[in-house]
Design brief:
Elements: H1 5-25, H2 30-37, H3 46-67, H4 87-103, H5 107-113, H6 119-139
Helix pairs in contact: 1-5, 2-4, 5-6
Length: 144
């Protein structure tokens, strides 16, 4: 697949809009995210609206995409093909949730938070990158 200049421009633009939205909504503040995840303590429900808005936009986008013959800037859609819930999916989801709860960041907000220059965010992003590299080197080849 060749990447065209228009794809790069649209990708950078979408990334900037996404990062700005994360910043505007408070998703870059780990304390606020941890407050949202603390449902039995001092629960901060404000991020529920952010997540609800994200689900609504994704729902509409998927509905529109499924009706299109092909994407505007590519030859085919890249929808997930697997619908099975297996041990790897559950373990990965649990690991993601554990990291999100402990660190207060997930991949998107972590990358956007790098612009703040905090050493904790850089440490989180480096650990996340190391985990991705580790996965690609050791677990990808174990797939059936």
């Amino acid at each position: 697949m060749t990447v065209r200049k228009s794809q790069i421009i649209v990708s950078v633009g979408a990334g900037l809009v996404f990062g700005f939205g994360l910043s505007l909504s408070g998703m870059l503040d780990p304390i606020r995210v941890q407050g949202f995840l603390d449902v039995f303590g001092a629960w901060d429900s404000s991020l529920a609206f952010v997540l609800g808005g994200a689900v609504a936009v994704a729902f509409v986008g998927l509905r529109v995409g499924r009706r299109m013959p092909r994407p505007i800037l590519d030859t085919t859609f890249h929808f997930p093909v697997s619908t099975s819930i297996d041990a790897r999916l559950i373990a990965g989801s649990a690991l993601f949730g554990l990291g999100w709860g402990l660190g207060g960041l997930c991949p998107g907000p972590a990358v956007a938070s790098l612009s703040l220059g905090l050493w904790q965010t850089w440490l989180f992003a480096l650990a996340m990158l190391a985990g991705m590299i580790f996965h690609d080197r050791f677990f990808k080849r174990m797939r059936p």
